[in-house]
Design brief:
Blueprint: E1 2-6, H1 10-19, E2 24-29, H2 32-41, E3 57-61, E4 72-75, H3 82-91, E5 98-101, E6 106-107, E7 112-113, H4 114-121, E8 126-131, H5 136-140, E9 145-150, H6 154-164, E10 169-174, H7 177-199, H8 204-224, H9 235-246, H10 251-260, H11 265-272, H12 277-288, H13 296-306, H14 312-322
Parallel strand pairs: 1-2, 1-4, 2-3, 4-5, 5-8, 9-10
Antiparallel strand pairs: 6-7, 8-9
Helix pairs in contact: 3-4, 7-8, 7-9, 7-10, 7-12, 7-13, 10-11, 12-13, 13-14
Length: 326
């Protein structure tokens, strides 16, 4: 049995390294030159510099080899690419494997979750989400973490635990696939807000308010969408939110801090240099606003990102001060 990781960015490369403890791993990229460079250096100098990669990792251009039925496929590409990727997999006959999604987000045009997108294009796969408080750089440097595997297939959860678990990464289980996906998608927006506060020199007093109000708004969104809310207070919700908001390695937080320092949205994205999923989720939030859903903090962050707010500091503070605690 082999593991295929599609996406040789920061998170994909880290997972390839982790899962190579017990398995041969094929790390797929769209760029053959990039694959050759990583194989030559045994290091992903662009996305994971300073980490020497295992000899059990083979980096190759996408579809250079053919996964067998029992192989596990990890999807580590941005959520906006998931529809095209799942259709590609079907066209290449990869349609009945175990699929593990590690991307965060929803399709902002339709509010479909990644599990819904994957299953619509690949109805025969066994699907699971992997998410939680997992900063990739910490794991790559040998620091431990715990994540959640979420699937409605209980036997798959136990199988993946056996295949993927290693000394650094342990797992909890959940059957609330949609709740786990929504928490993972929403947390980036709150981490952006903490980054903005950090950029203005605020500290933990304000961070704590933002995280608390953010969790309240997670619950409102999930209730509105008819999703059970207990996952909000699991490691997939609160745990992931706290980690992403407080970590100096969080790209969402880094993006928010750059906005506070006067960079435009596009300049901040370019400076971060990696996908900031919270920005994509902000587009979805703008759609929810049409239903008069009361999520003032999340709505404020969306305005800051997209509407050229003239005074970002005032926007953030006014929003926080006008929220009534519940």
């Amino acid at each position: 049995m082999k593991i295929y990781v599609i996406g040789a960015g920061n998170w994909g490369t880290t997972l390839a390294q982790l899962f190579s403890h017990k398995n041969k791993v094929h790390l797929w990229t769209i760029d053959k030159a990039e694959a050759d460079l990583i194989n030559e250096k045994h290091e992903n100098i662009h996305f994971l510099p300073g980490i020497k990669l295992s000899e059990n990792i083979i980096v190759e251009e996408k579809y250079s080899s053919k996964p067998e039925k029992d192989d596990v496929i990890i999807l580590a590409v941005p959520s906006r690419k998931m529809d095209d990727l799942s259709k590609e997999l079907a066209q290449n006959g990869i349609d009945n494997n175990i699929i593990v999604n590690v991307s965060k987000g929803v399709r902002h045009t339709t509010l479909e979750t990644i599990s819904e997108i994957i299953k619509s294009n690949l109805p025969n796969v066994r699907f699971c989400n992997l998410t939680g408080p997992t900063i990739s750089r910490e794991l790559a440097e040998g620091l431990p973490a715990k994540a959640i595997l979420a699937s409605d297939d209980i036997s798959l959860l136990f199988y993946l635990q056996d295949v993927l678990e290693n000394p650094l990464l342990k797992f909890d289980f959940s059957r609330d696939v949609e709740g786990v996906e929504l928490c993972a998608s929403l947390k980036g927006l709150i981490a952006i807000a903490v980054g903005i506060a950090d950029g203005f020199g605020y500290k933990t007093n304000v961070f704590g308010l933002i995280i608390t109000y953010g969790l309240q708004e997670f619950t409102k969104v999930m209730t509105f969408l008819g999703v059970p809310t207990k996952t909000v207070y699991s490691i997939a919700g609160m745990g992931d939110l706290i980690t992403t908001s407080l970590s100096e390695n969080s790209r969402n937080r880094a993006f928010g801090k750059l906005l506070a320092q006067g960079y435009s949205r596009d300049e901040a994205l370019q400076k971060v240099g990696m996908v900031v999923e919270g920005v994509s989720m902000a587009k979805t939030v703008q759609k929810l606003a049409k239903f008069n859903l009361s999520i003032p903090l999340i709505s404020s962050i969306a305005r800051i990102i997209f509407d050229d707010v003239p005074d970002v500091k005032k926007e953030l503070l006014d929003t926080i001060n006008n929220i009534s605690g519940e």
